[in-house]
Amino acid sequence: MTSFSSRITIGNNTDTETSAGLKFYGTVKYSGQLQPADDYILNGDIFGGWFKYKPDAKMLRTGYRTYDAKPVSEGGEGGAYVFKKQFTVKYMNPEAMGGGIWQTKQVLYGDTITVESTAGWSKYLLKSWNLNGKTVYAYDSIVVTDNLTFTPNCVIAQARIGGTYYEYLQDAVNAADNKDTINLVSDCGSAVTIAGKTLTINLNNCTISGNNGYGMLNVREGAKLTVNGPGTIKNSNKSNTACAIYVDKNELIVNGCTLEGNSGIVTNPKETSTVKASSCKITGTGLNGIGTGKKSGKGFITLELINCVIVGAQAGIDLSGYEAGGKVDIKGGSIKGKDGDDDVAIIFGVAMSVVITGVA
Asked: Which of 66, 174, 350, 351 is least enclosed, having the fewest CB within 10 Å?
């Protein structure tokens, strides 16, 4: 007998039920060839066979049912055709958990399917699938015995580099090559350290927030970091060194961001650092907008501010911890200290070169 696969509809002209299934003899009411074949079931053919499974009472009352038929052997009653029930496999899109179907597949009883990954699902990262209440993993093989609905157990990525998404911003920083750009795709709730690399982080209207004794972003060990807004970085910790961004012997460039912490930016006065900010709002709710966290040392600071709004609970800017000098260039914007008193707007360190133009 030539191999074929046809969809057929049969009448339920039954004669006996057994534990193995339902024996029947029927007349084909409809047939449609699914694959090219020399021998397939035609309308009007009368044949017999066995169901692979036992149909329920509702099916018996229906009169006609549609199955996918495949011959399993030659001879026997009616050619011993075995009929496989057709099922639907649904993959649920995480962006439409309320019932949207990402993909639907038709499979047969006993078929083996491979659970798919979530390629192309943007910022959603697949951890596992929920299959009818059970946990399975991408690329698992599942034998089809019932209607299946796969609902992805996903997490939302915080960042991406190019087309690669990362669950945490720190994961993206660790994976980044020198001079890479990292884009935030959702809010980040933990502190991040950048060390030994030149990187750009685009906030994309996202927020980095949390509680950390130093910065929510920490620029260390020779790193050079550029942070582009719009977006917010906020630290709720109240220790002296707590801030939105901590800079230690490195270079920081911040554009169009909102920074808030006990201090907005803290630099290490024992090292040489460069901080450049433009069109930022930098707020110190407990100490200073920009300061050294009450530490001092013989480092050197280069501070360049353009059109920034700096507000401190004590001083707007306090660089008194620098004992070996620094260079300060401030253009535009405003600087306010305690109670808005301009007398404590800026406190300079020793031997600093200062140029201030157009500051309110």
From this structure: 351
